[in-house]
Amino acid sequence: MTVLTAAACSLFLITFGADAAAGEGWRADLPWAVLESKLSTSASLIDTGFKDYASECTPEFVNFRSPIRSTFALINQPSGLCLPHLACGYDRCNPRPSANHTYDLHAQDILAMAQEVAVPDAFNPALQDSYFNDPSNPSLDLPSKVLHPVDASDVVAVIQFAKEHSLELSVKNSGHSWQGASSKKNTLLVNMNRYTCYAPTGITNCDAQSLGIAIKDNLSDQPCHLSVAKNKPAVIRVGGGENWDKTYRAVKDANEAGGLYHIVGGSSGSVSPMGWTFQGGLSGSWGTRYGLGADQVVQIEMVLPNGFHVKFGPTEWKDASAEGFTVPRTIGVTGLCRTNPEERDEEKWVWGDCPNDFDVDFMDLWYAIRGGGGGTWGVVLSMHLQLHDYVPRVDYPASSSEECSATVFTADSSLFMHPLSDPLNVEFVATYMMTPSVLNVTVEQSRACGSPGIIYNMPQCYGEEAISQAWITFLQMKNITGGTECLERNPRGGLPSSSPLGSRFEGQIADLPSPGIAAGAVNGVLVPKAWVEKVGVQSANDLFGISKFGLPYLWANYYAFGSAAVTSDQANSVSQAHRDAGIMILLFDTESETFWRDIAPEMFDLKDKTKFPPIFGSNHAATGMTGPRKDDWTKPCPGNWTFEERLAGCVSFQEAIYGTETLKRLEAIKKVVDPKNMFACNNCIRATEENEEEAADQEEVPTQEDKDDGVAVKEEDVGSTSSYPRNSFLAIAMMIGAAVNCFVY
Predict the structure, then answer these.
(1) Tens digit of pLDDT for each residue in 312-360?
(2) What is the DSSP letter of 514?
(3) Are the C-beta atoms of residues 451 and 559 closer than 8 Å to each other?
(4) Rg of the Cα trace of the chain?
(5) Distance between CA atoms of 540 and 456, rounded to whole angstroms?
(6) Alpha-carbon gap, residue 116 to 591, rounded angstroms
(7) CA 348, CA 262: separation in Å to the nearest integer?
(8) I want to staple 523 with a disulfide (CB 3.0 to 4.6 A). Which of 79, 446, 515, 590 is the partner?
(9) CB distance 510 to 496 below 8 Å
(10) Residue 70, number of CB atoms within 10 A of its CB
């Protein structure tokens, strides 16, 4: 396989030196010259700080507005610090100092920063705020030094250096994380954006006739053996610095040259296949037919915290069709270690058994990475992803014609994104996706379609589907005469559209949504499909009610599941809630008692008080969010508690995503893989010590005798408060952040 250089892979490659001379800058006591001597000539190791963030990143937010503003411009800045949400360069994605900061105040801050969306023609006053312009702001959460590696030996060198000197590392591709997971102060950032590119020449056709009976010892044909077992045509190798734009264009070029491939991925071109996949990989516009992003991985290559360069993937599996699964069950994973880690020529790499004292279980690692989040298990250098047979895409948007608005989509036309948000269209899409039999649609036809949801509410379909006929049936059920032409049919080919950014990034895959100053403040609730089938779409909508914006909660949806329940290899950490979901709803106010008291018990089994179930989606989860109170799961985590109080007294963000049992297993694996938390990204899985857990348990937690909505906070602690009730301004912040910054990640 031909390997392109990093220069050929990057949009552009800048050659530059360090900001500080040897012996200066962050941790000047360390022998940085020793590390530099082990790096390739194209790699760069630089000191960074606020001045780089202000000069390279902030201008994109000041000078450009959506949709011209682009993450593509940010990820190629020399320092490697820029993020798709400017505020995520600060602790909890909030530039306000966080001492004694309550969640209510945090939500107000997000609302203030998000006003650029609500008032797009006004210059955002948030950027004039002194917190954004203060280099001494204690909330700054930027790496102190950045390495731009270009090959595997660079990554091995930096991890071995960090291990020797007890340094913490952070990792970034494009930085798409509402948690700010790829930015952390007092860390050495490994920015992978200029790493070796594989996708343009990385497609391998998998022919069963040409494969041997057994997998080769070096695992070179393992991806194809697994692909053939899944009855799939090919795989593609994607580098740790590549994004979906580069990957999609590689598949597009192959198809134009005669290939017939389909790949499941994210809808935004600047998103990384790594972080997206390891969070589960919700792909409303691509994956409902073939499963989640985590289901597409067939082999992983990475450098672990112990410094070993490894590759691993399933080598034993068995048919699981009798259990209802469409892919084999993984029962054995084999991994190899590279025995010549200093060799830069990949053609000369030597793979062999890992040493006797190598105590990482590859089956556990395979489980943990696919679903357990990125940035915490090591540095991923490449992945082999599954390719599927090509199927053309057809979109079905609701028509905005005057006739359709007068006769079919008759709701208030001032509502956001009318007619896509029209309650009639919302109900039709929900019915087709979750209760298709009502429309005489088969499960297979329903799974052919998906939608990245919020704003869209537009089915995006591949292969055999029945949208047009189902629309006619739906209109008849509603006793609506005519209107068949009010659901348009738009063939789109097989790939996302090219960038709408004009001449700035002509020909690249659309980078939507555009970067925003604020990250969102939402919890995506994974509503079980079986529950919706039981109560019906209309009853579900009645229970959820109407949001404060006059829109049904089902409007704020993410249909990205479909076949997820049957496409698992049963050896990954994607929660069962993801597998069983019919929809992820983004605008639930999970800070309200109504949700935990009335709605959650209807959808989830909350009887066993020792095992909290997975409820939230991991993609799009925002910083500061938690589950309910630990001592009473019918009560929300009080918004006027500080973050420290919420951490001690409420079900954690991670536990609400993975559930108690899976979280414990992931933490146990992390303790083996990375016992010293070399990789301890914000809100990521970490190795925990029993004494730390005991200390958290012993921390003073407000009791039930406190105010129903939380512990009273002194007025001087919170400053002036909004006239909005807490749930109202939080919901508004959720709406703005989710609607514009979230729906296609």
Answers:
(1) 999 999 999 999 999 999 999 999 999 999 999 999 999 999 999 999 9
(2) P
(3) yes
(4) 25
(5) 20
(6) 24
(7) 32
(8) 590
(9) yes
(10) 25
